[in-house]
């Protein structure tokens, strides 16, 4: 695991630098929204999704600067989703990554606008020629990211989650909700490397299955941390799931933990036809289920 944690720290460092460089310069009356984007984007975070983009791109020897741009775009979408999720009309959180949430630091209107601007910035980054010289590859990345972020993916999952207090969800419905809300961006992260690297159909299929199992294992762990996690380590409040059905409320803690373990093992098996370049991807699922934040 030491190899993985040191690689993850390196990726976080290089992504932070790249995000600093990509963010528009602060100028004019609109500077408040750019300040808020910078605040939310550069406030820490594990950079798990960027790490996945870089790790999957490295399977196909995609040049790192290209993969880094896609990783930055994805982190912009992830950050926008956190800003909006923390708003009073959604999860109503005051602390994120150990700091005041964006609407607490600024105000609600600025937080909404910062989220909106991060969402559009993501597509601006990918559409740029610097991301890939082939327009078709850029288009495929854009359409996959749009699909996974939108109403068939993360936004759709968030909608179901918002309704979850008033509708009854069984285990299948919870799995579908989480595959949309959390799994979709993880799927894109892994798929992005395959798109840039012109992977074969079989390779794409294996990576898709890997991302599916990793996403569920990640979410089950998130549900467990909401019950057992330490707010100081997590940098956010716990007990937020309340009466909502989650993997843990439906399965119980022990079975949920077993399920996360099983999914992590299964994720690794999906990579069996990849060579040693897949080592970091092989280590990640067990890191994810043992994380404390
Ligand atoms: C508002 C459109 C919209 C979507 C919100 C992502 C999301 C959907 C809500 C966040 C709430 C939440 C706790 C989801 C569970 C999993 C998750 C995305 C956790 C946060 O991701 P990490 O752990 O965060 O990768 P860091 O801070 O490390 O980047």
List the helices and strands and how they pair.
Blueprint: H1 2-22, H2 31-41, H3 48-58, H4 64-85, E1 95-96, E2 99-100, H5 102-105, H6 108-127, H7 135-149, H8 154-163, H9 171-181, H10 183-196, H11 201-228, H12 231-234, H13 247-251, H14 253-269, H15 279-290
Antiparallel strand pairs: 1-2
The chain binds geranylgeranyl diphosphate.
Structural features, described:
This protein has helices spanning 2-22, 31-41, 48-58, 64-85, 102-105, 108-127, 135-149, 154-163, 171-181, 183-196, 201-228, 231-234, 247-251, 253-269, 279-290; strands at 95-96, 99-100. The protein starts with a helix and ends with a helix. Strands 1-2 form a two-stranded antiparallel ribbon. It is built from 15 helices and 2 strands. The relative contact order is 0.12. The mean pLDDT is 95. It has one domain (2-289): Farnesyl Diphosphate Synthase. The chain is an all-alpha fold and 293 residues long. Bound molecules: geranylgeranyl diphosphate. Geranylgeranyl diphosphate (GRG) binds at residues 45-46, 48, 81-82, 84-85, 90, 97, 154-155, 158, 181-182, 222.
* Strand elements, count: 2
Low-confidence stretches: none
| Continuous helix count | 15
Integer tally of domains = 1
The fraction of residues in strands falls at under 5%
CATH class bucket:
Mainly Alpha
Strand order of the largest sheet: 1-2
- Evaluate the radius of gyration: 18 Å
Structural class: mainly alpha
| Overall form | globular
What distance lies between the first and last C-alpha atoms, to the nearest angstrom? 16 Å
Tell me the CATH architecture: Orthogonal Bundle
CATH topology: Farnesyl Diphosphate Synthase
């Amino acid at each position: 695991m030491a190899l993985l944690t040191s690689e993850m720290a390196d990726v976080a460092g290089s992504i932070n630098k790249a995000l600093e460089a990509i963010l528009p310069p602060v100028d004019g009356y609109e500077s408040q929204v750019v300040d808020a984007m910078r605040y939310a984007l550069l406030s820490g975070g594990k950079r798990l999704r960027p790490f996945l983009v870089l790790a999957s791109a490295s399977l196909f020897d995609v040049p790192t600067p290209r993969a880094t741009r896609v990783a930055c775009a994805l982190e912009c979408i992830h950050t926008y989703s956190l800003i909006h999720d923390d708003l009073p009309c959604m999860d109503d959180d005051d602390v994120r990554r150990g700091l005041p949430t964006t609407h607490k630091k600024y105000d609600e209107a600025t937080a909404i606008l910062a989220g909106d601007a991060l969402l559009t910035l993501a597509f601006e980054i990918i559409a740029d020629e610097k991301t890939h010289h082939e327009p078709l590859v850029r288009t495929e990345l854009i359409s996959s990211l749009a699909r996974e972020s939108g109403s068939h993916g993360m936004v759709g999952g968030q909608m179901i989650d918002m309704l979850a207090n008033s509708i009854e969800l069984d285990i299948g419905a919870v799995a579908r909700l989480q595959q949309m809300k959390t799994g979709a961006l993880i799927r894109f992260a892994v798929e992005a490397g395959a798109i840039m690297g012109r992977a074969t159909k079989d390779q794409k299929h294996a990576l898709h299955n890997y991302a599916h199992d990793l996403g569920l294992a990640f979410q089950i762990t998130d549900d467990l941390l909401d019950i057992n996690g330490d707010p100081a380590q997590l940098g956010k409040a716990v007990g937020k799931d309340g009466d909502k059905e989650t993997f843990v409320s439906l399965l119980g803690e022990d079975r949920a933990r077993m399920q996360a373990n099983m999914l992590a093992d299964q994720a690794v098996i999906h990579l069996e036809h990849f060579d040693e370049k897949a080592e970091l991807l092989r280590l990640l699922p067990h890191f994810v289920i043992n994380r404390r934040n």
